Amino acid sequence: MPRHQVAEDLREGTLVELDLPEKPGAHYTLSATWRRDARPGPATSWVIDAMRDALAQCPD
């Protein structure tokens, strides 16, 4: 996230910055979650699909 967009949340403690190593070969798991009783809407479904497609293009 761009720091200027989340600066207030970081100051308030509603968002925390994770200290993750950014090194070649580092692998992180991303998950999309939603409530069982409320399926994602069209925009959310598009974002999930777009992320899945973009990440599939990343080298291993």
Number of helices: 2
Report low-confidence residues grouped into runs of 5 or more.
Answer: none
Q: How far apart are the first and last residues' alpha carbons, in Å?
A: 23 Å
- Estimate percent helicity: 40-55%
Mean model confidence by pLDDT: 87
Computed over alpha carbons, the radius of gyration is 15 Å
What is the makeup of the main sheet? Answer: none
List keywords for this structure.
60 residues, 2 helices, mainly alpha
Please give the structural blueprint.
Layout (H helix, E strand, L loop, with lengths): L2 H10 L29 H15 L4
Q: How would you explain this protein's 3D organization?
A:
The protein is mostly helical and 60 residues long. It is built from two helices and no strands. The mean pLDDT is 87.
Question: Short summary of the structure?
Answer:
With 60 residues, the protein is mostly helical.
